[in-house]
Amino acid sequence: MSNLLNNASLVYTSVSSQTILSSTSSFFTMLVGYLVNQETFNKTKIISLVGLLVGVICVTLNDKPQTADVTPFQTILIGDVLALLGALCYGIYSILLKLKVKDDSRMDMKLFFGFVGVFNTVLLWPSLLFVHYTGIERFQLPPSRNVWYVLLFNCAISFLADFLWARAMLLTSPLTVTVGLCLTIPLALMCDIIFKFKFNSPIYFFGAFLVCFSFYWINKHEKLDSENS
What we know:
single chain; mainly alpha; globular; SCL35B1-4/HUT1; transmembrane helix; EmrE-like
């Protein structure tokens, strides 16, 4: 549901707005976790999350194309609301997974993802027929071998990312993992430098630094909380 809402929001709002609003999932994760006694509120975490959001904003606005936006306000508002709902759903799902399973040793990760695949195969395929025959989204096979390769590679990478995300969630905490997902920003910065020899503006570097520092600080205090509990 979270992925569906995030992808749907891109139809109505800009990528920069969607990226910034999706990063609020860390706030929702801490809020939902606090309500079910899975997370604790303190000034350090709040300041770190604010720093994380500022870092994401710095990077996103730095990459924002200089084009006039003629999208109606109502359309943008729909996209922003969908992005916020996606962030909320992510926070709820993350906390529920940790709340129900609690520890990595209590769940067979391979069996879990096996059932996810079975349920998706059995329950979701009717929706493909619906959107195809109603004309909402036409279903067609990839037109070339290269597209097949890209599709299969993307499936493998997505599975690996979800597998590592779930393991990390159970080994650490939902808040740590949620903030850790934003590390794609400094990693993308490194890839630009290494592979494209592209050096971004100081604002981009500053935003990436804030993201890394926020992750380190939250991870440190989450570890202290787990030792004290």
